[in-house]
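Work Package 3 (structural annotation) set out to generate three-dimensional models for the target panel prioritized at the project kickoff. During this period the team completed the workflow that converts sequence records into discrete structure tokens, so that structures can be stored uniformly alongside our sequence database. As a representative example, we reproduce one entry of 272 residues exactly as it appears in the project archive.
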Amino acid sequence: MAEDRALKSAKKRIMQILWGVIVGAAALVLFLTAAANTSQAAAQTMAGLPGVGRLVRVVTFRSYRDQLASGQGQARVDTLMVHGLEDTALEKKINTALANWSEEMIARYHSDLEEMGTAGGREAVDCRLGRVTMTDRFLSVQLCGTIAQGSAQELTRWYTADLETGQLLELKDLFADGADYVDPISEEIRGQMQRQLAEDPHAGWLLRSEKQPTGFWEIAPDQSFTLTEDGRLVIAFDEGEAGIGVLGAVEFEIPAEVTDPIRAQNSPLAAA
């Protein structure tokens, strides 16, 4: 009888454990489904699910908040962190880069407040997660910032990690050593601007000319960039760098035909 009671007790305990696992799994599915359907940011951070691919998340590591009683300054800066990459060294690299930009935004905020002093100026700073793109080859995370002093300026920074090589990529890393990538990419962007301005003179692009001597002419060698899921290059600009303020931060997709002749042999860029 004692053995029977022990056996029944063990079976009951096993069923309780199994039921707990089933309920927990169901709750996880419901949570993920609800999050994906109700929050774009949550959906973007779910780069993989258990049993389907890597579970890689972009989470808020810490949040800086400041609200001056005088109303002169207000800041909301999130420091984001990638969690779940198999390459922990690469994960550390991208997290350091994400944290550095958040710290730069906070430092700029305090510096601006100090410069304004009691002159009566106001500033609001915001830093948050933008888009997230992940493939088997790369992970790309966008940080978006806004600095408002009367008028607001949108800022954008992309951080792209090569999951195959373990490298946090700079723009030059996509191309063969010594290749001139600035000129052909800049020429393509100017061409896109010119074609759009020809169709609509009010398109808003700030293309350098005699009438617009301070307009866009070429990208910086370390210009912010990302990649589409199929490997095409996308060049990103802060508000005012390439277009009028109402356009905000803008991007230009570069055809593979432009980048293919100069791409590095093991580059994540798509071939033409």
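The chain has a mean pLDDT of 83.
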